[in-house]
Amino acid sequence: MEIYIEDKEFKKLTFTEKPLEKGEYECCTFSNCDFSNSELSSTIFLDCEFVNCNLSMVKLTGTALRGVKFKDCKMLGINFENCNEFGLEVSFENCVINHCIFYKTKLKKTFFSNSQIHETDFTECDLTNSVFDNCDLTRATFEYSILEDVDFTTAYNFAIDPEFNKIKKAKFSTENISGLLTKYDIKIVG
């Protein structure tokens, strides 16, 4: 039997041994919780917030994330590709999002802010109108991705090949434009 929980705050809980109960969570806040390696599959999160949580290696098969905010979270090795794609809407602020997979995920208008996004896979991802505000994209993969109208003006350490991505109207700064030329192994001076 699945549960429905609304407007509840979960603080300093560990879900590694006893997982969060499957069900629907609406307008809930999870603060300083440890979800590492836990099973959140087939759970629904509506307008929820995760603050200072460890979500590393969490399983999200069929999980619905609608209007979910992640702040100051550690998120290593998460496969977002397996989430329920209907209404998928997330934002990330001050998070570590390393070694994650967003393969073929629709993330239109997604806001990434002050986050470390190392070696994360955005292959065939639709990021139309998204923002990478002051994000470190070291070795993040963008291949056959839709990056139209994406704001990369303050992002850094990225390598995006314009020949293998749709980048129409994407925004870059003069300081980071070299990230579009990485494959040519040229030096930009001045």
Task: Characterise the protein shown here.
The protein has 190 residues and is mainly beta. It has a domain at 102-185: Pectate Lyase C-like. The chain has no helices and 10 strands. The protein has strands at 3-6, 9-11, 23-26, 29-31, 44-46, 49-51, 64-71, 84-93, 111-113, 131-133. Strands 1, 2, 3, 4, 5, 6, 7, 8, 9 and 10 form a 10-stranded parallel beta sheet that branches. The radius of gyration is 17 Å and the shape is elongated. The chain starts with a strand and ends in a 57-residue tail after the last strand. The mean pLDDT is 94.
What topology emerges from the helices and strands here?
Layout lengths: L2 E4 L2 E3 L11 E4 L2 E3 L12 E3 L2 E3 L12 E8 L12 E10 L17 E3 L17 E3 L57
Parallel strand pairs: 1-3, 2-4, 3-5, 4-6, 5-7, 6-7, 7-8, 8-9, 9-10
Uncertain spans: none
Overall, the morphology is elongated
Main sheet characteristics: 10 strands, parallel
Number of strands: 10
In short:
The chain is mainly β.
Features:
190 residues; mainly beta; Pectate Lyase C-like; 10-stranded parallel sheet
